[in-house]
Amino acid sequence: MNQKQLKKISKEILKEIKKHQYIVIFHHLRPDGDCLGSQQGLKLWIEKKFPSKKVYAIGSNENLFDFLNFKFDKIPNDEILKESLGIVVDANYSNRIVHNEIILENKLKTIIRIDHHPEKDDINYKLRFVDFSYCSSAEQISHFIYLIDKKSIDTKIATFLYLGIYTDSGRFFYDYTSSRTHNLVAWLFTSNFDFFSLHKQLSKRTIAEVEFNRHVLSNYKIYKNVIYYFLTLNEINKLKINETASNRVDFLANIEGYDIWIFFIENKDGTIRVRLRSSEKDISVIAKEYNGGGHKKASGAIIYKKEDIEEIVKKCANLK
Question: What pLDDT was estimated at residue 175?
């Protein structure tokens, strides 16, 4: 998206925000720092910029980043919903969105999508600010705010947006991190938010997490250039692993000779989450074969039988 297109979509999003008295912001299933930071940061900015509007951030952080004291709202009644603007952040398809019944039952007046994932969607969005050159949806929202009113940033808004940028960029490691990313972060820093305390909280580990790390590093498997681990429900319960720790695919990152690393995580419903990462290859093509997608070097998928694990590993190893 070039600068002209960016300014155009930003103005169109602002126009929709101004037009609606009620705004409902959605995040995706199994929330992460980006969808939560994007949702909360955008809510606070709209409330600051337009104090007469009612903004509903719906869903839950599911005990992630509790130190940030997230504020979630009850779902408004149908009378309010039918006059509301819905904003989906960091998600595309309806089956990926928390409280998607509101969208599927066409209860909203208007709905828009702000997302950095390249996949298409199955929702009749009025507007789409979709650009996978951003490292995160929080970076997109930061850019939107910067273009609309860069003086409106404050410590609370900046904290949430920085959370999304910092975590989804792999702490500025992934290659979607750009000069634009750093320029926007520098702007967030002008709010004087307490980044040191945020880093300190994000870096904390429990003894259970250290033991889990040791367990993974003692039991990972290798196939050619792929290093991977299958985390079973039994292990999750035995090691007392929380949602955050179970997603730590980067335990296996950047090991010389292994340019693809994968975590397979067994869910309570019997499905298996697949978290794929790569330093070189496009693993999104594999994710798309298994009910998923994402970026070229950071993707996810869902499989329904354990036999698919070996199949995915071999397909990854054969990528050119």
Answer: 80
CATH architecture of residue range(s) 207-317: Roll (3.10)
From residue 126, alpha-carbon distances to 23, 100, 142, 203, 221 in Å are: 14, 17, 21, 39, 46
CA separation for the pair 131, 146 (Å, rounded):
17
CA–CA separation, 291 and 273 (whole Å): 10
Tell me which amino acid residue 10 is: S
Give CA–CA dist 208/19, Å, rounded: 49
- The whole-angstrom separation of Cα 115 and Cα 95 is 15
DSSP code for 8? H
Q: Which residue has the tokens 């050119």?
A: 320
Burial string for 19-46 (b: 16+ CB within 10 Å, else e) reads ebebbbbbbbeebbbbbbbbbbbbbbbb
At 244 the pLDDT is: 64
- The dotted CATH code for 3-200 is 3.90.1640.10
Q: Provide the 8-state DSSP code for 134.
A: S
Beta bridge partners of 230: 264
Q: What pLDDT, on a 0 to 100 scale, did the predictor assign at position 109?
A: 97
| 308: phi then psi, degrees, rounded to nearest 5 | -70, -20
> What's the mean pLDDT in 218-223?
96
The answer to whether 87 and 23 are in contact (CB under 8 A) is yes
Domain parsing of the chain, residue ranges:
3-200, 207-317
End-to-end CA distance of the chain: 28
CB distance 238 to 104 below 8 Å: no
Q: What is the predicted pLDDT for the residue at 161?
A: 98
